[in-house]
Structure formats: structure tokens, C-alpha cells
Design a protein that fits this description.
The structure holds two protein chains of two kinds. By secondary structure, chain A is α+β, with helices and mostly antiparallel strands. Chain A is built from 20 helices and ten strands. In chain A, strand 4 and strand 5 form a beta hairpin. In chain A, helix 9 crosses helix 11 and helix 14 packs antiparallel against helix 15. Chain B has six helices and no strands. Classes of the chains: A alpha+beta, B mainly alpha.
Chain lengths: 656, 148
């Protein structure tokens, strides 16, 4: 019964979305106030209805209602509660429903918190947002109904893919979707602005919080996914340039670019049409990401829905929205002349460079991802594009970003001075090079990668610190300290995010350059040494978990004779799904992770054991968390300002 | 079901890659084998190098790489030997011949174009002086921005 109500709520939501798409748009065109105002209650209703549908599906998973096809395929009565719930979005239908729920949530947020928006713009934004809802609700109802019943309900379910039964992955999709779908909001703002025919500083300010929110959720989502891969896949890789990873990375890069160009729109009223284009492209890549993941076109482990019908439908959605928006853009963009003038050397130009580099990086990822497809269809060449390509083609652009970042972020608006900016940064550069030299001196081997990573990371991190310090102006130390605490949150957010990026760059370079590995067959009682650590295999035993059986080794880790940890790497087997998984045992540390993965039993009685030393592994995700945190700090500043501006504006500017 | 087979293949592969009995005694040669393996795709896996996969064919290829190295082949010769037999599909880093030029050079060329266009547009605009707001527009903007 509850499932049927959920299904019905979805149908109602579809009807509401249709109305919300048409009525406010007509109202805004004709200047009918009542029709425009219709958008707000409609957005709220749409959100309530989709939440109800989502709750109904969640309920079915919680009570293990195996008469629902989706529940039967993706759940099992013996599964822990957390994974029963995360199973809701661990499959095609449920994850699409989550997508739609988040879409409705963002639409409702725009209705609730957008009090300061001009009435016509708000009506148009909500109508465009709702048109996306219409497309996806139709997709869900027509091709992937999650509330499909089975005629004869089976006794028990088929279990969720064991690899997805993990806390890291339970929360990875929701964050990623918050990011993907958050970009729909900037898309709606861009299209609404194109319909309105005006983009001004105020538009830049309104669109920025949404971009920031989308970007920070994407950052968290990508970091969670990468962290999961690190400890779950059993060899400590953190990024594989897999098509599905790329699908989330491209919108991230473009959202980062958009974030920066919207600043120029807001502060200087320039780069308007470029910013609109970026907003369209960023969401276009989100749709592309959804398409790649859902269609299984570029098959990878993530693609759990290989259904050509769905793929074609998604392709159509992508084509209509991106193509339609771009057509509108071509018609309207030439009318958007920049107001602000800036010199070739200025903060604005630095942000243009940032945008060029980020967009070109996204282009590298895009071409690399689709090239196997293009080469096969257009040139008849069956080939692969893998990590070595991306490492070679992507890295130069990111190195350029890291080099330019501290200089650009301290450049003056309007008319800057390279000599003056670099003069204040020379100490930072010297410090970075000194640290790089130090790293070169203590490392074993003559690899340049590690020291270069140190130099770039330190350059960006200390550059960010100097940036925030220089904002305090001149005066005594105490004066400057007190000014430091009163700086706008946006300044702090900027510095924290930039520092986070420096830390991630360093972490990636360090783990790539300095990791150590040991593969061996160990008998019980054997000892071995990797780097400064000694290991001893104390025993291996079998045990049973809630829905798996495990073979668990006990390995003691010692440093200079003193025991620092006892690790228990596992090999699990999930009988219902019939799948083995490795559970690596990791001793996390600030300077290095000790990482153990267990292999098969050998014929001579020993066990294959892989030992890795992963230097500075946690810095990769620590940096990502800092980036997201910086976004959050900045967002808290923005939101206050938007809300503060809203109350006055409502009085000052009546309905246009 | 097909999906599950693929997933199974992939994850079975993720459990263990290079096995202890494959490792060469000569550490220099072994390191070269690892580097070569990381650039060769396991033909039956999804986006996995033979170094990471434990599919049977990946193991065979790893052994083949080591065999060629012990015979005295150069790194390039080993890769060429494998590509001759399995096609360019196994190269994770595609060569830059023919159409692959687009793959390798589209982004750098785009970067240069963007730099030149961006630079010339900014330079031209910065020379313009007559882009200021009309008084009416300025008043409206002030009104909006004042509401901070």
C-alpha cells in the first residue's frame, strides 16, 4: 500500500512539475503577478511529494519488502540497517529518485530563500528548474519505476553488491548528487537570465552561493569516493581515471571555474556571457556524467544499469537541455556587453587564466574519456585511454594552475602589477624551493616528482597564508592580528580552499613518488621489513560476520623493535552475492599509512600478503576536506549578505 | 546478470595482482617489469592494467613481459612485442599516430587559442574607455549594490 502511495505521489509530483514549468513562465512573460507567484507553493509541493515517494521507498527497504522488485534485487534481510538504507540509492531506480528528490529540494530552497530575487527572475528560475524535474520524473516513471511489484514475492533478496556495503560508499552518491544537481540551479539561473536578457552584478551575487554549494558537495563526494577506493580495493590506489570518476571530475573542474568567473561578474560586471556559458556547460557535464553512469555506455564497475532504452532517453534529455540552452545563449549572449574595464595585468585577467586552465583541464578529461568511443566509431581503431595518458596530459595544466594561483590571487583588481605582486611573494617562493631541496636531499632515489610536489604544495599553501595576512593592511602586529579576525569570511574561505588545494597537490605527488611496496608469501611466524617498519604474521583465522564469512590475518607492526600496531587484514566472502572482497588493514598516520592487504592461501601453507607504505596519504583527502571547508566558510558569508540584501531590496524594487 | 559477471571479473581482479611467485630476483629488472605492466591494459578487464589485475590473461601477460625482459629485450621492444599480438587496445597510453593526434593535441592547442583570444580581447577592451554606465543604469546598480 505504502509503495503504491509512493508511486502515486510521484505521478502527482510530475503533474505539479508540469504546471510549475509552464504557469510562472507565462506569468513572467505577460507580467501576471499571480501566475508568477504560483511557482513558490508549487516548488514546495513538488518537494513534499517527492520526499514522500522517497520515504516510501526507504520504508520498503527498511522493512525488507521483497515484493518490490528493486528491494528484492538490492537488499537482503540479514543486511545491517545502514546498508538497507543506503541500498535505496545503491541501484538505478533508487538513485534516480534521490536525484529527483535533490532537484526538488534545490528548487524549494530557491523558493524559500530567494526572497530578494526580482519576481520575474525568480519565476523563471523556478520554471526552468521544474522543466528539469519534468524530464527526470518522466524518465523515472516511464523507464525505471522503483515501485514495481513482483507477482510472487520471493522469500529473501539478492543482496546489495558487497563493495557498496561500506560507510564511505553509503554517503558517496548523495554528496555527489547534491553537487551534480546543485549545478542545475546555476543552470536555471543562467537560462532565466538569458530569457530575461539581463545579467548584472546582482545576478553574479545570486548565482554564487548555489555554485559554491554545488562545488563543495562535489568536492566532498569525490573525496569520499576516492577514499573508499583507497581502503576498499586492496591496493591503495586513490584515483583511477575511470570514466565514472571522470564524469564527476569534469563538473567539478567547471564548477570551480564558474565559481571564480562569477566573482568577476559580481565585483566587476565583466565576463558575463562567459559565465553564463560556463553555467550551462557545467550542468551539461553533470547530465553527461549521469548519462555515462546510468547508460553503461563506457562500461566500468559503476555502471549498474546497462539498458539502451534508458541510455537513449538520457541522451535526449542531455541534448534538449544543453542544446536548447546553448541555442538560447547564441541568440541572447551578444547583447551582454561587459561594463567593467580591466587591464591585461589584473585580478580579472588572472581569473580569466584560472578559467582557461580549468576549462582546458576539463577538456583533457573529456577527450580522454570519450576518445575510445570516437576512435572506434570514426576511425575504426579499438584502443584504450588509461591513467598514463591522463597523468601525462592533465598534470601540466594543473601544475600551471598551482604556479599561477598565489600570484593571481594577490593581484590587484582592475590594474595590477606583476613585479609588485611577485615581490611580496618572493619569500614564499624561497621557502617552497628550500623545502623542495630538503625533500630532494632526504629522499632515497633521484625522482623529481616528490620534490616538485613539495615545492608546488608549499608555494600554494604559504601563498594562501600570505594572501590572508596581506589583507590586514599595515600597522602593528596586534592591530593586524585583530584585523585578521575581522576579515570577511569570504577571504578566509578563499585562503582555506587554496591551502587545501596545495595540500592535496602535495599529497598526490608524495604518495606517487615515495610509496613502497612488498609482495610475499608469509608463513605464520614469519617476519619481514619494509622501510623502517618490521612486520610479523602472528596468525590467520576464519570468522563469521552478519552477512559474510572472513579470513583474517593478525599482523604485528613494529618500529625499531617497539610494537606500534596490530593490524587485521581480511578477505571476505559474501555468500548471497557470491562475491569476495578485500578489507585492507590500515594504520593511519600523519606522515604515512601502513597498509596491509591479504591475498590467497598458497599451496605450501603460507598466505600471500601485500605490504604498502603510503606516505602522506591522508593529506590528499585532508586537502579536499579543507577545500570544501573553505567553500563552507565562504558560503556562510555569502548567505548572510544575500539575506541582508534581500530585505531591503524587496522594498526598493517592486515587481518589474 | 552480465553486469555482475563484469563486476565479478573486475573485483576478483582487485583482490590480488602481482603474485609472489612471479616476482623476478633481479630488483632492477622487476621494477622495469612493473613499470611496463602499469602501462598495459588487461584485455578482459575494465580499465585495469595487467599490473593490477589478477585475471588469468593478465598473469600470463605479466609472465610474458618478464620473460622478454630476461631474454634481454628493451622496454620498448617488450611493449611492441605485446602490441603486435594484442593490438593497440592494450596500450593504456595511446600512441600519437594518426587520429590520436587529436587526443593528444586538442587540449594544448585549445589552451594556446584561448590564451591568444583572451589576451587580445582583454587588451582591446582595456583600451576602450566608453563602456561606462549611463547615469540611469549607474543609479539602479548603486541601489542594488547598496542593499548590502
Amino acid at each position: 500500500m505504502i509503495a503504491e502511495l509512493g508511486h502515486f505521489a510521484l505521478v502527482l509530483a510530475f503533474a505539479v512539475a508540469l504546471l510549475q514549468m509552464v504557469v510562472p513562465l507565462v506569468g513572467a512573460h505577460k507580467g501576471w503577478r499571480g501566475w508568477m507567484l504560483f511557482a513558490e507553493p508549487a516548488a514546495t509541493t513538488q518537494f513534499i511529494l517527492t520526499s514522500f515517494a522517497f520515504a516510501a521507498l526507504t520504508y520498503a527497504f527498511v522493512v525488507s519488502d521483497f515484493s518490490l522488485r528493486v528491494v528484492w534485487l538490492n537488499s537482503h534481510s540479514a543486511k545491517p540497517m545502514l546498508y538497507k538504507i543506503s541500498g535505496v540509492w545503491g541501484n538505478h531506480e533508487g538513485s534516480l529518485l534521490l536525484w529527483i528528490l535533490i532537484l526538488a529540494l534545490f528548487g524549494a530552497c530557491a523558493a524559500w530563500f530567494g526572497a530578494g530575487l526580482p519576481q520575474t527572475l525568480k519565476a523563471r528560475v523556478l520554471a526552468v528548474q521544474s522543466s528539469i524535474s519534468v524530464a527526470f520524473l518522466a524518465f523515472l516513471l516511464l523507464t525505471s519505476n522503483p515501485f514495481l511489484r513482483l507477482e510472487t514475492p520471493p522469500f529473501d533478496g539478492q543482496d546489495l553488491n558487497p563493495l557498496l556495503q561500506d560507510p564511505g560508499l553509503a554517503f558517496h552518491p548523495p554528496f555527489l548528487y547534491l553537487g551534480y544537481v546543485g549545478l542545475s540551479m546555476t543552470f536555471s539561473f543562467a537560462v532565466a537570465a538569458l530569457i530575461e536578457g539581463r545579467v548584472d552584478a546582482a545576478w553574479g551575487r545570486w548565482v554564487r552561493p548555489w555554485t559554491l554549494a554545488a562545488w563543495l558537495f562535489l568536492t566532498v563526494g569525490i573525496a569520499l569516493g576516492s577514499w573508499w577506493a583507497y581502503y576498499e580495493l586492496g591496493w591503495g590506489g586513490f584515483w583511477f581515471w575511470d570514466p565514472v570518476e571522470n564524469a564527476s571530475f569534469m563538473p567539478w573542474l567547471l564548477a570551480a571555474a564558474l565559481l571564480h568567473s562569477a566573482i568577476v561578474v559580481e565585483k566587476r560586471e565583466a565576463l558575463k556571457s562567459w559565465t553564463i556559458l560556463l553555467a550551462i556547460m557545467a550542468f551539461g557535464f553533470s547530465l553527461l556524467g549521469t548519462f555515462i553512469v546510468r547508460s553503461g555506455l563506457l562500461t566500468s564497475v559503476h555502471a549498474f544499469a546497462n539498458d539502451p532504452e534508458r541510455g537513449i532517453y538520457l541522451l535526449a534529455i542531455m541534448g534538449i537541455f544543453t542544446g536548447g540552452a546553448l541555442t538560447l545563449y547564441a541568440a541572447r549572449a551578444p547583447g551582454m556587453a561587459a561594463k567593467g574595464v580591466f587591464g591585461v595585468v589584473s585580478r580579472e585577467s588572472a581569473l580569466v587564466l584560472n578559467n582557461i586552465l580549468l576549462a582546458v583541464s576539463a577538456l583533457v578529461v573529456f577527450i580522454g574519456t570519450i576518445w575510445p568511443l570516437v576512435a572506434e566509431m570514426a576511425f575504426g581503431r579499438v584502443l584504450s585511454v588509461g591513467p598514463p595518458f591522463f597523468d601525462a596530459a592533465f598534470t601540466p595544466f594543473f601544475v600551471a594552475i598551482a604556479i599561477a594561483l598565489p600570484i593571481g590571487s594577490m593581484m590587484a583588481w582592475k590594474r595590477g602589477d606583476v613585479v609588485r605582486t611577485t615581490r611580496s611573494l618572493w619569500a614564499v617562493g624561497l621557502l617552497a624551493v628550500a623545502l623542495g631541496a630538503l625533500a630532494f636531499a632526504i629522499q632515497t632515489g633521484r625522482s623529481a616528482l616528490g620534490p616538485i610536489g613539495v615545492i608546488l604544495g608549499a608555494w600554494v599553501v604559504f601563498g594562501a597564508a600570505l594572501d590572508v595576512w596581506s589583507r590586514t593592511g599595515r600597522g602593528t602586529l596586534t592591530n593586524r592580528m585583530s584585523r585578521l579576525s575581522r576579515l570577511p569570511r569570504a577571504d578566509w574561505g578563499k585562503a582555506v580552499s587554496h591551502a587545501g588545494m596545495g595540500i592535496t597537490i602535495f599529497g598526490v605527488a608524495a604518495i606517487t613518488a615515495w610509496q613502497a611496496e612488498d609482495i610475499r608469501v608469509a608463513q605464520i611466524g614469519d617476519t619481514w621489513t619494509v622501510g623502517i617498519h618490521e612486520f610479523e604474521l602472528r596468525g590467520v583465522e576464519r570468522a563469521e560476520g552478519p552477512n559474510y564469512v572472513t579470513t583474517m590475518a593478525e599482523v604485528a607492526v613494529k618500529r625499531s623493535g617497539r610494537e606500534v600496531a596490530v593490524l587485521f587484514p581480511e578477505k571476505r566472502f559474501y555468500p548471497v552475492a557470491g562475491m569476495p572482497t578485500t578489507e585492507a588493514a590500515i594504520k593511519n598516520g600523519l606522515l604515512r599509512d601502513v597498509y596491509l592487504a591479504m591475498g590467497d592461501a598458497q599451496s605450501n601453507g603460507g598466505w600471500a600478503i601485500r605490504t604498502y607504505i603510503k606516505p602522506f596519504a591522508n593529506w590528499i583527502w585532508g586537502g579536499a576536506i579543507l577545500m570544501a571547508l573553505g567553500g563552507l566558510i565562504s558560503l556562510s558569508d555569502r548567505r548572510l549578505r544575500v539575506a541582508a540584501g534581500a530585505q531591503k531590496r524587496a522594498v526598493a524594487v517592486p515587481a518589474e | 546478470m552480465k553486469v555482475w559477471v563484469i563486476i565479478l571479473m573486475f573485483w576478483a581482479g582487485a583482490v590480488m595482482a602481482v603474485e609472489p611467485d612471479e616476482v623476478l630476483d633481479d630488483p632492477v629488472l622487476e621494477q622495469r617489469a612493473r613499470d611496463i605492466s602499469a602501462g598495459l591494459r588487461c584485455p578482459v578487464c575494465q580499465n585495469e592494467s595487467i599490473d593490477e589485475s589478477s585475471a588469468t590473461i593478465a598473469k600470463d601477460l605479466r609472465l610474458l613481459v618478464r620473460e622478454r625482459l630476461t631474454v634481454g629485450d628493451s622496454d620498448d621492444a617488450v611493449v611492441a612485442y605485446i602490441v603486435d599480438r594484442f593490438g593497440e587496445f592494450v596500450l593504456l597510453k595511446p600512441n600519437s599516430r594518426g587520429a590520436n593526434l587529436i587526443l593528444w593535441f586538442a587540449a594544448p592547442i585549445m589552451f594556446l587559442i584561448a590564451l591568444v583570444v583572451g589576451w587580445s580581447v582583454i587588451r582591446r577592451k582595456s583600451g576602450d574607455t566608453d563602456t561606462s554606465l549611463t547615469t540611469e543604469e549607474q543609479a539602479r546598480l548603486d541601489q542594488i549594490m547598496r542593499s548590502d
